[in-house]
Structure formats: structure tokens, C-alpha cells
Design a protein that fits this description.
32% of the residues lie in helices and 27% in strands. It contains ten helices and 14 strands. The strands form three sheets. It has a seven-stranded mixed beta sheet, with helices on both faces. A five-stranded parallel beta sheet has the order 1-4-5-6-7, with helices on both faces. It has a two-stranded antiparallel ribbon with strand order 2-3.
Length: 315
């Protein structure tokens, strides 16, 4: 059989536009699948073509509504397993529950591990994700995991649009390694926001470590959720004499008051990838630019199918 007939890429309902873009890159048609819902909210899936002995990929971000999209992913995996697919790869551009990756206090779950177990037990043979919130999540699986990086896409955009006097900002201590790697590639300086978090989705920027005066600042994070961290960081930078303030991240969760905060903030622009589709408010925000990960995902899928190296994409 040819490459195009052996591989099947099925999309859940979380990010259908990205599924179409990846299929276009691969030169294949999206797999036929009917995603339905019973009147009580129960998810039903029906695979609309033969997958026996085929290499099946499922593209589904576990973004809002998180629980519905996660359940749909598990059911699609189960349907493909029972239809005798040779290998099932769950392509999860945004891995929901990734922030709950450890016990931060007594009597709380490690939900990232629970989700890993669910995906594995459902029947996935491999997982692909982009910029996992914590690298150790890969160890929660007993199957291969490809944690690929959106860095090449973000770096290319920065190099094209921002030339001189750059400083890369890590919004917290946890993001220093990522920010340092970007700063090195861009020949830019590095600064760190000393952030104190009192509760989930509540952040307060306290201090800046590094020189930011008269510079163009780019705040780098793996995700923007309610934009509290982002806007507090922008206020701190603004008070220190930064000329321009931009922000970039892989996952634009953008929940709750995020768009309102971004529009009212001193941030000049925010560029994100399309691992999560934007809602209507986000699409209408003039400060937001979306960069596509379709080619990155498509090339990763192709290399997995051909048993070629994925890591060489990021050398």
C-alpha cells in the first residue's frame, strides 16, 4: 500500500481546523469519523472507514471544554483499537491537566498522571504533544511520548519582527531554562520576574532580576490562561522603563478575563500558536497573532510513520 492509504488521521471536535491543515501538509484526506452526543451529554463515536492493520493518528487537544474533549479522545482511541488498527498515536497538541503534575500540598491528586493512565489504558500506543507544561509528564506514560517544541515557530517570528535591543523575560523561576535558550538563539539578554502565587490563577509580580530599561521585552511562557501573570509582568516591566512589551506562548488557553486583561494592559502584542482554537473574543482581539503548528505536527507524524528521527527537527 502507498503512504497515503496506510496512514489515517482522525480529528476530534476540539481543533478541526488544525486537523485539516495537518492533512493538507501530509497530502491525505481526514479520516471519516462521526462525533455525536446523546441528549444527556454522553459522547458517541463511529469510525466511518476501514482501519484494520492501518497506522491511525488522532488529533485532539484537551482544551475547553476539557473533560468533554478528553473523554472524546479516549472513546476515539477505544473505537480504533476495537476496529483493529495496527498502531494508535494520540496527537494531543495541548495536554490538559498538565499543570497538576505533582503534589504541591497534602491530599491533592496528580491529575497529569491520571490522564496519562487513561490514555494508555484506552489503547494508545504512542503520544505526541507540544510543549508539555512539565517535562516529567513524559515519565507518567509507559508508552513512547514525543514532546515536541514550538520554539522554531516562535523564534522565526521573533527574528523576523523584532531585531534590536531585545530582552527575553521569564515570568517566573520555572521558565528560566526556556527563556535562556531563546535568549541564546536570539543573541538577546535575559531577565526574570520574581513572582509570588497565592492561589491558582492568581499571580502577583514582585521584582525584576536583570536589565530591562530602554529595551524591547518579550515575555515567554508555555501558556497564557487568565493572563494574570502576563499582565502583572507587563506592569512591572513598564515601571522599569521598558520601551516595548510583547509576549509569546505556545498554548493560548485565554480563559475567564484573559482577553479583557490583555486589551487593557500595556502589552503591545501577544503571539501564540494554534494548539488551541481561539474563541470569538480572542479572534477579535487586535493584539493577538496566531502562528500555525500544522507543518510541525505534520512532519512529526510523517517521521513517526516512516520510523525516522523526530528529535532532528529541533537540532
Amino acid at each position: 500500500m502507498t503512504f497515503k492509504s496506510e496512514m489515517k488521521l482522525f480529528g476530534g471536535t476540539s481543533n478541526q481546523t488544525l486537523t485539516l491543515e495537518v492533512c493538507e501538509y501530509l497530502g491525505i484526506e481526514p479520516g471519516k469519523i462521526a462525533n455525536k452526543t446523546f441528549s444527556d451529554g454522553e459522547t458517541q463515536v463511529e469510525i466511518g472507514e476501514n482501519v484494520r492493520g492501518r497506522d491511525a493518528f488522532i488529533l485532539q487537544s484537551t482544551c475547553t471544554p476539557v473533560n468533554d474533549n478528553l473523554m472524546q479522545l479516549l472513546i476515539i482511541i477505544d473505537a480504533l483499537k476495537r476496529a483493529s488498527a495496527k498502531r494508535i498515536t494520540a496527537v494531543v497538541p495541548y495536554y490538559g491537566y498538565g499543570r497538576q503534575d505533582r503534589k504541591v500540598k497534602p491530599r491533592v491528586p496528580i491529575s497529569a498522571k491520571l490522564v496519562a493512565d487513561l490514555i494508555t489504558v484506552a489503547g494508545a500506543n504512542r503520544v505526541v504533544s507540544i510543549d508539555l507544561h512539565a517535562g516529567q509528564i513524559q515519565a507518567y506514560f509507559n508508552i513512547p511520548v514525543d514532546n515536541i517544541f514550538a520554539a522554531p515557530i516562535l523564534l522565526e517570528y521573533i527574528q523576523t519582527n523584532f531585531q534590536n535591543n531585545l530582552v527575553i523575560i521569564s515570568p517566573d523561576a520555572g521558565g528560566v531554562e526556556r527563556a535562556r535558550a531563546f535568549a541564546k538563539r536570539l543573541n538577546a539578554s535575559l531577565a526574570i520576574i520574581d513572582k509570588r502565587r497565592e492561589a491558582p490563577n492568581v499571580a502577583e509580580a514582585m521584582n525584576i532580576i536583570g536589565e530591562v530599561e530602554d529595551k524591547t521585552a518579550i515575555i515567554l511562557d508555555d501558556m497564557v490562561d487568565t493572563a494574570g501573570t502576563l499582565t502583572q509582568a507587563a506592569l512591572a516591566l513598564n515601571s522599569r522603563g521598558t520601551i516595548e512589551i510583547h509576549a509569546c506562548c505556545t498554548h493560548g488557553v485565554l480563559s475567564g478575563p484573559a482577553i479583557e486583561r490583555i486589551e487593557e494592559s500595556t502589552i503591545d502584542s501577544l503571539f501564540i500558536t494554534n494548539t488551541i482554537p481561539l474563541n470569538d473574543n480572542a479572534r477579535n482581539c487586535s493584539k493577538i497573532t496566531v502562528l500555525s503548528v500544522a507543518e510541525l505536527l505534520g512532519e512529526t507524524i510523517k517521521r513517526i510513520y516512516d520510523s525516522h528521527s523526530v528529535s532532528t527537527l529541533f537540532v
